[in-house]
Amino acid sequence: MTIKLKLEETLSGAGITKNALAREAKVRPNLIYDMCEGKTKRIDLETLGTILDTLNTMTGRSFTLNDIMEYIPAADR
């Protein structure tokens, strides 16, 4: 099983910088950078919720977990 983080693509499509998201979500910029670079191994569910809430507020759109991460079954790798 693999979880692919797609936050970089989502931010690019929404026209939001990593620093702006970190500032508005009140999370460490390194967390956002690590997520965008696929370096994150663990993330708190509350933090994921905060990131999604912030993206929704900043854009007026409705982002979900599917917009920032993707499950890739072992058979599909």
Question: Could you characterize what this model shows?
Answer:
This protein is mainly α and 77 residues long. The chain has a single domain (2-76), classed as Orthogonal Bundle (434 Repressor (Amino-terminal Domain)), CATH 1.10.260.40. It has helices at residues 7-14, 18-25, 29-36, 45-59, 65-68, and strands at 2-5, 69-72. The N and C termini lie close together (9 Å). The mean pLDDT is 94.
Topology:
Blueprint: E1 2-5, H1 7-14, H2 18-25, H3 29-36, H4 45-59, H5 65-68, E2 69-72
Antiparallel strand pairs: 1-2
What are the main properties of this structure?
77 residues; mainly alpha; 434 Repressor (Amino-terminal Domain); two-stranded antiparallel sheet
Question: Considering the protein shown, what is the CATH homologous superfamily?
Answer: lambda repressor-like DNA-binding domains
- Distance N terminus to C terminus? 9 Å
Question: Which fold name is given in CATH as the topology?
Answer: 434 Repressor (Amino-terminal Domain)
What is the domain total for the residues? 1
User: Which ranges are low-confidence, i.e. pLDDT below 50, for 5 or more consecutive residues?
Assistant: none
CATH architecture: Orthogonal Bundle
SSE class: mainly alpha
Mean pLDDT: 94
Order of helices and strands: EHHHHHE
With helices defined by DSSP (H or I, 4 residues minimum), what is the helix count?
A: 5
User: What is the share of helical residues?
Assistant: 55-70%
Number of E strands:
2
